[in-house]
Amino acid sequence: MPTTTWGLAVVSFDALLERSLTLCCTDNTPNTVTLAVSGHGGEAPAVKAYDTYVKESVVPLAQTCDRMDGLENSGTLLLDAWEGVRSIIVLSSRAKAPSEPLAEALTPFLGKTQEAVKKLRDLRLKRDWDRHQKTLVEMVAALSWILFKPPQQLPAPFVKEALGSAEFWSNRIRKDFKGKDETQIAFCDNVKKALTDLAKYIEEYHKAGLSFNPRGVSIAEAAIVLSDEVGKDAPSLPDGKSPVVKRHPTLKGGASGGNVGGLMSELVGRKNQDGSSAATGLRKVTKDQQTWRKEYKKDGQTAALPAAPSLDAAKKKETKKKAPLRGLPIFEYQDRGFKWVIENHTKETAMKELSKDGIITVEINDPKQQVYLYNCEDLTVKIKGKFKSLAIDNCAKVAVVFDTLISSAEVVNCKKIQLQVNGICPVFTVDKTHGFLVWLSKESLAVSSFATAQSSEMNVSFPDGDDQKELPIPEQFVHRLQDGVVKSEVSDLYH
After folding, report:
1. What angle do CA 238, 244, 248 make, to 5 degrees?
2. What domains can be seen in the chain, in order of their start residue?
3. Where do the DSSP E strands lie in 163-322?
4. Three-state secondary structure along 412-478?
């Protein structure tokens, strides 16, 4: 069967009969049709599995939240966030992988999830429910998995990291309510189940990143039909235009009703009238007329082949690393919780927005205030004054210099963190952190203690006379069973 052309569309007649495309006429352009994807044949296995996962793992968590008066409408917001991710999974099952960066291609469709996450984060709950809200905020951060793919980050391990951050807070809830309130324990269990099952789902259907349909159309075209199915306006392309293709004049009016059935009827009718093929009269497209081939000619000239990239350019492309995905840099004081929040900052953003030297300075004027750092990298923070507590979560290459802490300094899910205590800090809590160094003052030397878990490369530096001495914090232990009790000792490596 020869290849034929109708305007801008190049298809074979047999292939056209089998294509599941919907051709919708626009109101103001009778000779154009909008190209979209048909939703016939049911949803993809990845979508069906996601629906099952939400029903079995997320809905029970939402119902538990609804039973807890202090969490207001957190359950509804959770379902909205997961529903927004579902729409993207449906979209990817019908569309081919985009040529532009994944985050850029999916940004127009993240609105529902982003709105739900923002509302969840901005809930003004009573202080007794602060840990619950932090647990949920850390949990919904896992939904960013749809934007990750190798070599940047595998989505399933990212979700497991989010589970660790959420459990940092939920384990405190579990400790406070163990044996007292089963609903609170169910909340912690459901959070863990929702993220654990999400990681399993991703491992099966999106192990190397969000899966796309290699036979699908573009994301923008697939979104048009998806929006029609839910009764909403079609999202526009980044330039505000809708994807359209011109209809050949010989087929005008044939696709009545805006569907492919009308077009097929006209083609079959043409064949029945004179006994010839419906493709009769359509010229053959040769190789030099097919724009995607190297033989393509334009205005009688052979298109020049692109020059091979230089060796230096190839090396630069290989060595260039993509910047990690970060949210909007935040440095603000929140009245609720008396908390200073520093999020998504680097030295570059700090130099651009806050200070010339890239150092963020926090002025404490109330001992009740707390300081919270999240998702920061290559950053130095100075905290002046006496304050309640310090929490550093999911940060890398961050140095914090502070005066006196009343409660504790907590470091979780971090890499290469350095703390300098000019006054006193009673407790340091280090969890799932690789690379931790703290400089103690003389005042803090006698009162500071360390609680560590699943961490490595930890060291403490302290004054020893006129010198500064540094020792490792043990991470290897010897356990023995004596008289029915497990007794632990620090390994001889540290003696």
Report:
1. 160
2. 45-224 (1.25.40.330), 330-494 (2.160.20.70)
3. 244-246, 297-298, 301-302
4. ECCEEEEEEECCCCCEEEEECCEEEEEECCHHHHCCCEEEEECCEEEEEEEEECCEEEEEECCCCEE
Q: CB neighbours (10 Å) of residue 479?
A: 8
Structure tokens of 241?
């235009």
Average pLDDT of the chain, as a whole number: 76
228 vs 231: CA distance, rounded Å? 5
Identity at 66, one-letter amino acid code:
D
At 327 the three-state DSSP class reads coil
213 secondary structure, DSSP code: -
Q: Is the pTM of this model over 0.90?
A: no
Quote the radius of gyration of the chain (alpha carbons, Å).
30
The H or E element that residue 342 is part of is strand 339-343
* Calpha distance 164→174 (Å, rounded): 14
Beta carbons of 218 and 208 less than 8 angstroms apart: no
Q: Which residues contact 422 (CB under 8 A, 6 or more apart)?
A: 401, 402, 403, 404, 441
Do residues 89 and 112 touch, judged by C-beta distance below 8 A? no
Q: Specify the 3-state DSSP secondary structure of 395.
A: coil
Structure confidence by residue, pLDDT tens digits, 196-254: 999 999 999 988 888 888 887 777 777 776 665 554 433 443 444 333 333 333 333 43
Cβ atoms within 10 A of the Cβ of 363, count? 11
What is the amino acid identity at position 398?
Answer: V
Q: What type of residue is 309?
A: P
Token representation of residue 270: 């043409």
CA pair distance 340, 493, nearest whole angstrom = 40
Tell the burial category of 411 from Cβ atoms under 10 Å away from its Cβ (0-12, 13-18, 19+). buried
**CB within 8 A of 152, min separation 6: which ones?**
322, 324, 325
Q: If 0-12 CB within 10 Å is exposed, 13-18 middle and 19+ buried, where does residue 9 land?
A: middle
